[in-house]
């Protein structure tokens, strides 16, 4: 696991060919083509100016409110977006552009998704079998039994069809699938809601084990608390943009070491801190603004923030998109 990511992010672009990061997103944007009022075509942008890097052995948490574009990013990486999606920017796996063809080849093998929805399970296949089908090694059944035991799933659960499983059990089956897949990059989209404390700890430990084994993990969550328990660095999303990339150690005290006002607000909203709610709400999807996406809720916004969008820059070993950080 590494914590010197900020300099590494910048350096790694310069020495791209020699030692590229496991996974990179650069200036990525995503819009949907829509038809309004008959034949008039419009586009709605849901992700813009998104950057992030995941190194081998690193757990990167992507934290953001509901609707900030987290699942869409996950689906974009896997290449499973609806037809009307328009993508721009680059996604690179091991320094090479992820083309749709490459995505099909890597999906489920090198890059594995723990989807947010349990509907992703095959309704016609028993739980144990679903997990066995992604194992490439021998002794599929033994490996599946072992992971089920670790994830708190009984041998009876393995013989059940998805509709016979509770929501929490189904989530654990999905997580088991990614864990045994042998993928180098695991994208976990909200793998923890509805898990009891014991299974939550198991899931977190398992993510850590995968990282120790050299895999890169993208852990998508809206819960900054669980992100801080497991991740090496935290990428904060707001309205489809990365507003900050911070080290876990930066989250302490009153958030003095954090850079973006939104990240500080998220930290101070935690029950163990001030429990101060964040006033206002995220701008709706498709909202086009000249200025900073957080400006309407920001306590330190100036006139500049209403007129211009800040670019990302490195501040104090982290990355921030704010004029006043
Ligand atoms: N096919 C689509 N066409 C138009 N808009 C879409 C489409 N799919 C998703 N969106 C919109 O894009 C935004 C981002 O959605 P996304 O599911 O990525 O959010 P999220 O951050 O994963 O939220 P949550 O925490 O609730 O899972 C949402 O406002 C959603 O309504
Ligand atoms: Ni989501």
TrEMBL record:
Superkingdom, taxonomy of origin: Bacteria
Gene3D superfamilies xref list: P-loop containing nucleotide triphosphate hydrolases
Broadest EC class assigned to this enzyme: translocase
GO CC annotation, single: plasma membrane
Broad class of the protein's primary localization: membrane
Entry annotated with the keyword Iron: no
Sorted UniProt keywords: ATP-binding, Cell membrane, Ion transport, Membrane, Nickel, Nickel transport, Nucleotide-binding, Translocase, Transport
The keyword GTP-binding is assigned to this record: no
Any single biological process term in GO: peptide transport
E.C. numbers: 7.2.2.11
Subcellular location: Cell membrane
Catalysed reactions listed for this entry: Ni(2+)(out) + ATP + H2O = Ni(2+)(in) + ADP + phosphate + H(+)
Record domain ABC transporter: where: 23-264
GO MF, one annotated term: ATP binding
Quaternary structure (record): The complex is composed of two ATP-binding proteins (NikD and NikE), two transmembrane proteins (NikB and NikC) and a solute-binding protein (NikA).
NCBIfam families: oligo_HPY
Similarity comment: Belongs to the ABC transporter superfamily.
Identification of the protein by name: Nickel import system ATP-binding protein NikD
Native organism: Virgibacillus necropolis
Lineage: Bacteria, Bacillati, Bacillota, Bacilli, Bacillales
């Amino acid at each position: 696991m590494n914590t010197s990511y900020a300099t590494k992010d910048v350096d790694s672009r310069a020495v791209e060919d020699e030692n590229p990061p496991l996974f990179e997103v650069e200036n990525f944007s995503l819009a949907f083509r829509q038809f309004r009022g008959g034949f008039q075509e419009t586009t709605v942008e849901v992700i813009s100016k998104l950057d992030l890097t995941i190194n081998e052995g690193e757990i990167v948490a992507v934290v953001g409110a509901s609707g900030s574009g987290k699942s869409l990013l996950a689906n974009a990486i896997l290449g499973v977006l609806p037809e009307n999606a328009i993508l721009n920017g680059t996604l690179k796996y091991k320094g090479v552009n992820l083309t749709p063809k490459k995505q099909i080849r890597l999906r489920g093998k090198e890059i594995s998704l723990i989807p947010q929805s349990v509907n992703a399970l095959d309704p016609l296949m028993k739980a144990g079998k679903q997990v066995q089908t992604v194992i490439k090694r021998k002794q599929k059944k033994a490996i599946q039994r072992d992971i089920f035991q670790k994830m708190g799933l009984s041998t009876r659960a393995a013989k059940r069809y998805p509709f016979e499983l509770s929501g929490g059990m189904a989530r654990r089956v999905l997580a088991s699938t990614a864990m045994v897949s042998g993928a180098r990059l695991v994208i976990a989209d909200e793998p923890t809601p509805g898990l009891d404390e014991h299974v939550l700890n198991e899931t977190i430990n398992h993510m850590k084990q995968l990282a120790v084994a050299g895999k890169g993990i993208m852990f998508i969550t809206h819960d900054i608390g669980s992100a801080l328990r497991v991740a090496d660095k935290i990428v904060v999303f707001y309205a489809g943009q990365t507003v900050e990339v911070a080290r876990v150690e930066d989250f302490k005290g009153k958030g003095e070491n954090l850079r973006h006002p939104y990240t500080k607000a998220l930290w101070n909203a935690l029950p163990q801190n001030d429990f101060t709610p964040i006033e206002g709400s995220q701008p709706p999807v498709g909202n086009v603004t000249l200025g900073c996406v957080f400006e309407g809720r920001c306590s330190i916004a100036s006139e500049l923030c209403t007129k211009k969008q800040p670019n990302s820059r490195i501040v104090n070993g982290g990355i921030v998109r704010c004029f006043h950080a």
